[in-house]
């Protein structure tokens, strides 16, 4: 789904990997990692991770971007829970994701009496 979401961005490539993110960044010769912050608690975690990554490879910088106000509450856990309880997630995710979530949870309910 991520590849589909990013399909209209020609300068973005979606790649999966195993292991440490800093190791993958080094493998692809990245110079910068961009991380997102939704809420204040994200800052604490990301700050510690950035310091650790700096220790592991000081040549790779970490930049953190703060989300827009309207997205601070959105997390995959919240979106899945809303979708599972037949809530409308269309304002939180792309249309194809909302459709896939609806299909996923509808198929789970088919077995329930």
Can you characterise this structure?
There is one protein chain. The model has no long low-confidence stretch (mean pLDDT 91). Strand 1 (32-37), helix 3 (40-56) and strand 2 form a beta-alpha-beta unit. This protein has 113 residues and is mainly alpha-helical. It is built from 5 helices and 2 strands. 3% of the residues are buried. The longest helix has 17 residues, at 40-56.
Which helices and strands appear, and what pairs or packs with what?
Elements: H1 2-6, H2 21-27, E1 32-37, H3 40-56, E2 61-66, H4 76-84, H5 95-109
Number of helices: 5
Helical percentage: 40-55%
Global Rg: 18 Å
User: Into which percentage range does the β-strand content fall?
Assistant: 5-15%
The CATH topology of the largest domain: Rossmann fold
In whole angstroms, the N-to-C terminal distance is 31 Å
Question: Order of strands across the biggest sheet?
Answer: 1-2
User: Any low-confidence stretches, pLDDT <50, length ≥5?
Assistant: none
Mean pLDDT: 91
Q: Tell me the structural class.
A: mainly alpha
Name of the level-1 CATH class of the largest domain: Alpha Beta
Number of domains: 2
Following the backbone from N to C, one meets helices and strands in this order, namely HHEHEHH
Described by the principal axes of the CA atoms, the overall outline is globular
């Amino acid at each position: 789904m991520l590849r589909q979401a990013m399909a209209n961005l020609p300068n973005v490539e979606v790649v999966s990997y195993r292991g440490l993110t800093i190791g993958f960044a080094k493998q692809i010769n990245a110079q910068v990692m961009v991380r997102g912050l939704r809420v204040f608690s994200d800052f604490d975690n990301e700050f510690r991770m950035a310091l650790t990554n700096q220790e592991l490879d000081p040549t790779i910088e970490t930049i953190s971007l703060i989300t827009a106000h309207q997205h601070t509450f959105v997390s995959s856990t919240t979106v899945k829970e809303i979708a599972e309880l037949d809530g409308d997630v269309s304002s939180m995710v792309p249309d194809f994701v909302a459709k896939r979530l609806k299909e996923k949870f509808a198929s789970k309910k088919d077995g329930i009496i």
